[in-house]
Amino acid sequence: MIDLNGKRALVTGGSRGIGAAIALALAENGADVAFTYQNSISKAESVAASIQGTGRRAIAIKANSADPEAITRSVTEAVSALGGLDILVNNAAIGLNGMIADINLDDYQALMDINVRGPVLFAKAVIPHLAAGGRIISIGSGLAERVPFPGVTAYAMSKSALLSFTRGLSRELGPKGITVNLVLPGSTDTEANPADGPAADFQRSMSSLGRFAEPHEVASAVVYLASPAASMITGAILAVDGGAIA
Fold first, then answer.
1. Cα–chain-centroid distance for residue 70?
2. Whether 224 is catalytic
3. Is 193 exposed, middle or buried (CB count within 10 Å of its CB: 0-12, 13-18, 19+)?
4. In terms of C-beta density within 10 A (0-12 exposed, 13-18 middle, 19 or more buried), how is residue 56 classed?
5. 90, 92, 168, 227: which one has the fewest Cβ atoms less than 10 Å from its Cβ?
6. What is the pLDDT of residues 162-196, one digit of tens each?
7. Active site residue: 37, 108, 155, 224, which one?
């Protein structure tokens, strides 16, 4: 077990899928966890109950990651509830499929607001609360490194922005002893992209391991990067994709 006892984490978009798995895995390894959610209070309550079942503190915060004021408020609430923050996991994101020629401007703007501006503003709000040993970990996508089919250009572009964000922010925060890293999941069995979905066989064919990841496998990488064991790792891009971008 990786020891995160005494650590306090904020996970954005933590009520389902990969975000929920990350929130629970951090708690199972000793961290108190605040997480944001946008719509489903029942799912958020279920995740909070699971975290509390590990003996750790949990706080679910309703917040839209496209809203700068909500981002600032959610960080303030997390700090107040947990007594500070040591770990930020930028997980909240939305998808957008379709060709650039057909893209709806409002949908594109929402994609950029949540997937790009959201992580920047969450980091901006959290940085003043992080001490040496602090962690910022973002969740990207394997599509940031490789776009093997049409129709996902805008989404892939939003996720590729996190590459530069991670590398640049690691330079800014390195002198303070704070690490900044990026996890790139490949096809992962979630509600949004189920392993029995219409494109699942094609997605499996791109992976060296020939299968979808489970959310807990992505969460394990995040827990490692959040831990003291990863103290010398910063500015790193870690693919958890079964070899899809190998």
1. 17
2. no
3. middle
4. buried
5. 168
6. 999 999 999 999 999 999 999 999 999 999 999 99
7. 155
